[in-house]
Amino acid sequence: MLLDAAGDSLVYVNGALRAGDPYSYGYLKLPVFLHHGQNTLLFVVGRGQLKAKLEPVHAPIQIETGDLTLPDILVDGPKELWAGVVLLNTTSASRKVHVITRNSAGDSASVTAEVPAMSIRKAPVRLVVPEGDLGKVQKFDVECTEMKVTDRATISLEVKKPTDTYRDTFFSNIDGSLQYFGVNPSQKPSNKDALVLSLHGASVEAIGQASAYGHKDWCTLVAATNRRPYGFDWEDIGRLDALEVLDVAKKRFPHDPASIHLTGHSMGGHGTWSVGTLYPDLFASIAPSAAWISFWSYAGGYKPAEPSPVESLFVRSMAPSDTLARVRNTLEEKVYILHGDKDDNVPVEEAREMKKVLTGIHADFGYHEEPGAGHWWGSPCVDWPGIFDQIRTSRLTPRTSVDFTTPNPAVSSHDQWVTILQQTQAMAPSNVKISGSEGTTENVQSVRLDRAFESLTLDNQKLGKVRKGEVLARVGETWQASKLKDGAKSPQLSGPFKNVFQNRFLFVVGTHGTPEENAWAAEKARYDAETFEYRGNGAVDIVTDSRYNLGWQRNVVLYGNSDTNSAWKPLLSGCPIQVSRDRIVAGQKTLTATDLAALFVYPHKVRGSWILVGAVSGTGMAGLRTVDRLGIFSSGVAYPDWTIVGADSLRKGSKGVRGCGFFDNGWNLAGPDQAWNE
After folding, report:
1. Which pLDDT tens digit goes with each residue over 355-367?
2. pLDDT at residue 146 in the model
3. Assign residue 74 a region: left if phi > 0, alpha if psi is -120 to 50, beta otherwise?
4. Do the strands 334-340 and 365-370 form a parallel or antiparallel pair, or are they unpaired?
5. Nearest to 179 by CA among 230, 223, 128
6. Kind of pairing, strands 334-340 and 285-289?
7. For residue 411, what are the β-bridge partners?
8. Helices (DSSP H) in 455-599: which residue ranges?
9. 558: Cα separation from own chain's centroid
10. What is the rounded CA–CA span in Å between residue 109 and residue 127?
11. Residue predicted with more confidence, 174 or 48
């Protein structure tokens, strides 16, 4: 049957883990197996309400139109478009499904999509736009076939003029899925236009965000989705979505490359602070409205006053969320802060704190509190004259001095002509400050300078002449010309664990264990894929270990351990962490127990290129079941490069963590960046 539930964060259906709908969107329908007689559905509910019903299935492959990803049709625009349609596989085997679309003129297009057993997948489908008068709406018939038609549906696309606000789509390199963004186009497009990236608040759609602004004849505004209306708080996958949309917009819309700007409201205001401080040379100006600063200032993030060594590493894993630790990066940008002084959602104290922090370090920021205004006071709280006056007058300019801080080079590494390649202490703030021919560094192991110096003094060491593009590495207390070792940590190849969820990642299910172990791997991978579809509008490929191609140059997540997943040894044999049914070996330590869970990430070279391999693993069924409850796709949840916990962590919290840490820059278990609860 189909389980249609809303309000739950997850559900066990006769013991099988399935995704939930905590925000009560109402569009998550999951095929489930029911037995004759009594069936048990155990819901985890965190938001105070639950609705649930069971519906009969009507076909082996069904089309669900409640959660579409749609573009709009532009008059005189592209004649081929892509949309996203959810397919439900109600059978016990993975199915390859042909999806055929037809327009009103009978023109057809087809694609093939693989849908996991008893699960869902949002599949991209091709649409051919008919010739002639398009009217206001165009309908497309959609059929899914397996030798014969199994289901039919109709989807409708709105027709827009090129000067209207509209939806556009693109394929994401995060997971290969189709995503959309809103466009509020310049009314007189030219290469002198400003390009504005706008980030929406919680529960807001990107097209609604773009529509909140009036049309302008001197700028194009694009609104990313954060992958969903709640998404990832513009962190993790949400941050990557914003950057992808900006890259797509740069290619699709004429603009002045020196006039790129960032703004957002509420959660999107937080995203403006977060993204704007991570990438200071991307934006000429940033303008947060009704913004909160960080999870700790507003969202109840956990930061113990006296953290244990284990807790300290988890806090460091959250470093990209710490806006204030890199606030000096805003010195390269113009800043405008807008807030209603009667905001009952995000307190105005958030804006006042940022004003206080910027006062004295930033000579070029604007600030306005709207008297009597609450959280949302109509379009002016985003389309504010002061913000757009700043956008008109702000430009990116090359700088001869740099003062750049990053929490992790794998998140943000570059500013102007400085690239931080490696840290000494993982995920502690790293800073490079160079003015004239002198500079200092903090927590930097290696750096590349894409500017030549006739003479440079770095950390009181006279280096003399430095060539453009030269890499400098710290050896002991001195800097020396160097090169990164192949496969070493770098901005493109690094932890922490959640960095594996990029580069068109896929899931590999172990099938060489006991029936119970194999069932767990399949169910956990399905649950993670469903959760990512729900939270991230994603579409993750799932394959068994016997089908996995070792030549694929994509990040991969293994489900199981070295005894149960045959892809483990070819991908992770060199990793200092090894997991089997009854033990975990981590460097010189051996933990023998059947209730241990592990999450970690490690590199692997494929045909000359490096990928990241993630492990979702455990010892014994108790350990594997413990992994079920380690949140992965929630914002505000972070892990170091590797984490080992016992089943008692579900009761004891951080005291149940056996060990965690960061690999060194050579991916070894060495140095001080690890902690154990003995």
Report:
1. 999 998 988 899 9
2. 82
3. beta
4. parallel
5. 223
6. parallel
7. none
8. 515-536, 568-572
9. 19
10. 6
11. 174
